[in-house]
Write a structure and sequence with these properties.
By secondary structure, the chain is α+β, with helices and mostly antiparallel strands. α1 crosses α2. The two termini are about 25 Å apart. The chain has four helices and eight strands, in the order ββααβββαβαββ. It has an eight-stranded mixed beta sheet, sandwiched between helices.
Length: about 190
Amino acid sequence: MNPILIDFPSSFETDRLKIRMPKPGDGIVIHEAIEASREELKEWLPFAQERQTLEETERNTRESHVKFLKREDLRLLIFEKKSGRLIGSSGLHRMDWEVRRFEIGYWLDTRFSGQGFMTEAVEGITAFAFNELKANRVEIRCDTRNQKSRKIPVRLGFELEGILKNEDVGMSGGLRDTCIYAKIKN
């Protein structure tokens, strides 16, 4: 089946969070969150290496919206229910619809770190993948040195399946090792 024909919700909620696909107009809150968190994010993420204009962020947001609708990439925005503020971004990426394999990526606005929001979001996204998308496998990949990111799959019971040595180029230019955590359908 062509993935564009697969129907599933474009938003869902957890106890404290509303998680949804990006929409036109979201660029402004995404831009603000990235700018507030740039120093922490740029150590790990390519998009944080150089400042983007608000227009570039909005364009990227609209492209993400289209990719979500086409089922090419399922970027998700995370909002705190109580305040309505964007607290981060996540999503299901590098998917294989035939296998039903998805990879969760995530970043958090540093102003909201240390409150368990990203763990809650990843738990909700994992449940969404298994329940709504009929996932057989959900992965989380992260740099071995990124201790904050590594704690999330561990807390949520993902299994560390291995560490790929010298697998990618890190943001500082040297080679990095990548952890692969996974949960599979029971």
